[in-house]
Automatic annotation (TrEMBL), chain A:
One of its GO terms (molecular function) is transmembrane transporter activity. The keyword Transmembrane applies. Keywords: Cell membrane, Membrane, Transmembrane, Transmembrane helix. This is Unannotated protein. It is found in: Cell membrane. Pfam families: BPD_transp_2. It is a multi-pass membrane protein. It comes from freshwater metagenome. One of its GO terms (cellular component) is plasma membrane. Its main location: membrane. The chain crosses the membrane at residues 12-36, 56-81, 88-106, 112-131, 143-165, 171-193, 200-218, 253-275, 308-330, 336-363, 384-404.
Length: 420, 504
């Protein structure tokens, strides 16, 4: 017992050290070594929500110092919590926030930062990642590794784009997409569960298959006959009454397309179902110790098959987001590796639904921060800005996330008779 | 409830695991099934439990023929099973484990855990168990995990309970407790099938004993049968259960460990400042329940562990920091805990495995060449000397049985000039016949004036072979006692209870 405890403390110590060092560095660098010389303006209004604060102008140097100071103070609280052997997550979250804000204030010296837009963009970039990681979550919690998320997203983006173009109806695109995702899942499930093919290799092969197939059809069909095959309509925004009027949060969360609302619903449903229902208990059981599940009368491979299919449906909705959910037309390899980032979010989020969502949002935020800062033209080289999301990820993974433990039977095909 | 098996036959390819087995368990009876490893006991029970399908034969419950093709069929017929490797989800709570497979749901499909929680508390109370329904299973001691399995069977009203090698993982105290629980279950009308190869336990609780050898029922006997008779029926020939330990003079200390600490990758000390020595011509047994640091200590003696502090002196020479190669060639023979993982290279031939440690030395090596002829000739000699049963020394070592594999390991390790033999669980998973051989070999080394350090979790083995016994508990050596200690005292020490009177 005491060993487990001390390992937790060790992990916390690492987290506290990393965040404290970053806070101090941020104070020194953004605040004093290279202070911004101009004023930074934050914008807080996006649509027609109720306004508390329209704009906030602050001298970049002062702002960076204030936010860095917040993070330093939060780090001190984290150290105190560590000494009391308590949770450090809240102060660490505050400190992280402070460092981020300090960086933004410093970087955008003399510019206008659309703060609400920054967050909204982060959410939108995270949408396919969230769907992808939910697909991975359901597969891996049941013991099947899903590397084919990328393929599921791409195939369903393609199908939903084409179907919506042909029918001129977004809804048909949204209906067709999960079917495409499930079709990829069917291949994954059949080969990995029925024939025990190595799941990592299989997933990779499926990705290559989908990339090749969509590239081919795109070139031979979607480009030459664009008017019929690749002019998908898109879903408009639906404003939720009252909620969409909330300052800051309103336009971010409650003035979105139907796909985003579906995402909220799916995440909530999975979180509930995985931990509170019979299906969830059984799913977690077959991912941890399938033999044990079998001996209490659970048909392991049948449930795995079913879950992989459900995962395909979910990834499919995420794929629809690329076309009917946002830009309409399908583009060659338009998922651009989102399936792999989704996989990273799943692991970063420790195979928990909310953890994966948080990780996806973080990736989305870092990505969007990079493009926003590039667009407003900050003085940092854009090559460096492109590194920001990955640097953030590395710091988060090495410094803040503890030991991650995959479901014990993840990737291990189940065959009865290994028992005798 | 009575259970009857009629003519159960099961083959795997050309191998007959069960050959028309007949068996009858009466209501409220403890029926022991005794047999060596690979005799077909587990196969038979997996058939009864629906995990395997018999080629032919019938299973009757209360004189009615049952069709059992899935574990769920067995469960609904009132047959419960506690597997050798527990069938519990380590990251679930006790209650979640009990609920799994029998889930009841309430509003919105929300799982009902409370009913199970109450049932667990009730059964625990009836049998005097202390089981917290909300504890995470992997944090519980093995003995408690086993109780969770038993509780599960009872909650789902198992009338016939199969216990597959239930004592293999338990401390002597936990074993006694389990035997008591079995008696209690019996008195409440539950029939028990008790699978084991431990003779003492069988004679203590069984009402009826069936002996299985090579897939066939050899005999059905009463528990009054002596251990010697039971053993010879199991093996098929007379067996010497207690090896003869000749009295002889014990020499000077040959290996001395001082303040030896071993840390794992995270820096946690798994062996804590232990001190011991072994004399020439002496067997020092290191006893303890699995997982108390013995494995790491054994590995540390030949520097197989990464983080070692303190000192290990062999004949006055400091060995800590020496390479593994250096340790072996300085005169330490090492029989590792897992012959498959650490002792042998499965796909190499028997001849090659016999010279793994000497392949670079004359006469096996000439310059950069390996002299194949010498290797084969030497292998043939070893095979005869150690009575290794095989087709050809050129066959892959993985084709051998467990006992013969272990003989290959022992033959190799004793082919160097040896001062100290370190044997880690040398008889684990072996049949009675092979155990007998290994024990004789260990005592032969002792009689030849070598120091032997025997790591074992088997109390009988420790008592039979040791001159002195060091008991490990949570990484420390609690005491080093003489071999005339009683089983009870030793059992208490293994459970961490220090008894001053037992000190030597």
């Amino acid at each position: 017992m005491s060993e487990i405890r001390s390992n937790i403390q060790k992990r916390r110590l690492r987290g506290v050290s990393v965040i404290s060092a970053l806070s101090v560095l941020s104070l020194i660098f953004f605040g004093f070594v290279s202070p911004g010389k101009d004023k930074t303006t934050f914008g807080f209004v996006l649509n027609n929500e109720w306004v508390i604060l329209k704009e906030w102008v602050i001298a970049a140097a002062t702002g960076a110092r204030i936010f860095s100071l917040i993070s330093v103070i939060a780090s001190l609280f984290a150290i105190l919590a560590y000494r009391k052997r308590a949770q450090i997550i809240v102060p660490v979250a505050f400190a992280t926030f402070g460092i981020f804000m300090s960086f933004i204030t410093w970087a955008a010296s003399g510019k206008f930062i659309p703060f609400t837009g920054l967050l909204q963009g982060a959410l939108l970039l995270a949408v396919p990642l969230v769907f992808g990681s939910m697909s991975g979550l359901i597969c891996e919690r049941s013991g099947v590794i899903n590397i084919a998320i990328e393929g599921q997203l791409l195939a369903s983006a393609f199908v939903s784009g084409v179907v919506a173009s042909l029918t001129h109806k977004t809804i048909w695109g949204l209906i067709a997409a999960p079917i495409a995702g499930a079709a990829i899942s069917f291949l994954l499930a059949t080969f990995s569960i029925k024939f025990s093919v190595d799941q990592v290799i299989l997933g990779f092969v499926l990705n290559v298959l989908v990339i090749g197939l969509t590239d081919f059809l795109y070139k031979k069909l979607l480009v030459p006959y664009q008017a019929t095959w690749n002019t998908a309509p898109t879903f408009g925004h639906i404003d939720i009454p009252i909620l969409s009027k909330l300052p800051i949060l309103g336009p971010i969360l409650f003035s979105q397309s139907v796909v985003v609302y579906l995402m909220f619903a799916i995440v909530a449903t999975i979180t509930f179902a995985l931990f509170k229902t019979k299906w969830g208990l059984r799913t977690r059981a077959i991912g941890e110790h399938p033999t044990a599940a079998d001996t209490v009368g659970i048909d392991v491979n049948k449930l795995r098959f079913k879950n992989v299919m459900i995962a395909g449906l979910i990834a499919g909705v995420g794929g629809a987001y690329y076309t009917v959910g946002s830009v309409g037309a399908f583009g060659k390899e338009m998922t651009a590796g989102a399936g792999f980032i989704a996989l990273a979010a799943l692991i970063f989020g420790k195979w928990s639904p909310l953890g994966a969502v948080f990780a996806a949002l973080l990736f989305g935020f870092a990505d969007n921060l990079q493009s926003t800062l590039t667009i407003i033209g900050v003085s940092i080289p854009s090559e460096f800005m492109l590194m920001v999301p990955y640097i953030a990820t590395i710091i988060a993974v090495t410094g803040l996330v503890g030991r991650v433990r995959a479901p014990a039977a993840d990737g291990v095909p189940y065959q009865r008779g290994g028992a005798h | 409830m009575s259970l009857e098996l009629r003519g159960i036959t099961k083959t795997f390819g050309s191998f007959t695991a069960n050959d028309s087995i007949n068996l009858r368990v009466e209501t409220g009876q403890i029926h022991a099934i005794l047999g060596e490893n690979g005799a077909g006991k587990s196969t038979l029970m997996n058939i009864v439990y629906g995990l395997l399908k018999a080629d032919s034969g019938e299973i009757l419950v209360d004189e009615k023929i049952m069709n059992i093709s899935e574990p769920s069929d067995a469960l609904s017929a009132g047959i419960g099973m506690v597997h050798q490797h527990f069938m519990l989800i380590p990251v679930f709570t006790v209650a979640e484990n009990i609920v799994l497979g029998h889930e009841k749901t309430g509003k919105l499909g929300v799982l009902d855990i409370n009913t199970a929680r109450e049932a667990i508390l009730k059964v625990s109370k009836d049998f005097g168990f202390e089981v917290d329904p909300d504890a995470i299973v992997e944090t519980l001691p093995v003995g408690v995990q086993q109780k969770v399995e038993i509780i599960r069977a009872l909650i789902y009203e198992a009338k016939v309970l199969i216990l597959d090698e239930p004592t293999a993982v338990l401390t002597p105290q936990e074993t006694d407790e389990l035997l008591k629980t079995m008696q209690e279950l019996k008195s409440k009308g539950t029939s028990i099938i008790f699978i084991t190869h431990k003779l003492r336990e069988v004679r203590a609780v069984a009402d009826q004993i069936t002996i299985i050898r090579r897939g066939k029922v050899i005999a059905a006997v009463s528990p009054q049968t002596t251990e010697g008779e039971l053993a010879s029926m199991m093996v098929g020939r007379a067996v010497d259960l207690a090896p003869v330990k000749h009295k002889h003079s014990i020499g000077d200390p040959i290996l001395v460990a001082t303040d030896l600490t071993v840390r794992d990758a995270l820096g946690t000390a798994v062996v804590k400042k232990v001190n011991f020595h072994v004399n020439a011509g002496e067997v020092l047994a290191v006893a303890g329940v699995q997982g108390n640091g013995q494995s790491e200590l054994a590995r540390a003696i030949i520097n197989l562990e990464e983080h070692i502090e303190g000192s290990i002196k062999l004949d006055g020479r400091e060995m800590r920091g020496e390479s593994i190669y250096g340790s072996l060639h300085a005169g330490i023979a090492f029989i590792p805990e897992s012959r498959e993982l650490d002792g042998l290279v499965g796909s190499f031939s028997i001849a090659e495995n016999l010279i793994l440690d000497l392949h670079d030395q004359a006469p096996y090596a000439k310059g950069i060449n390996l002299s194949a002829g010498v290797v084969l000739a030497e292998a043939e000699k070893r095979v005869t000397e150690f009575d290794i049963r095989l087709q050809s020394v050129s066959d892959a070592v993985s084709t051998l049985s467990g006992g013969n594999k272990q003989k290959v390991v022992i033959a190799r390790e004793l082919s160097r000039p040896v001062k100290v033999l370190v044997a880690s669980q040398p008889t684990r998973g072996l049949d009675v016949g092979s155990i007998e051989f290994v024990h004789e070999r260990i005592l032969a080394e002792r009689d030849a004036g070598r120091g032997v350090i025997l790591f074992s979790t088997e109390l009988d083995e420790v008592m039979a072979l040791a001159d002195r016994i060091a008991v490990m508990y949570r990484g420390e050596i609690l005491e080093i006692v003489d071999s005339n200690v009683t089983r009870e005292e030793l059992g208490l020490l293994m459970a961490g209870v220090v008894n001053k009177k037992a000190s030597a």
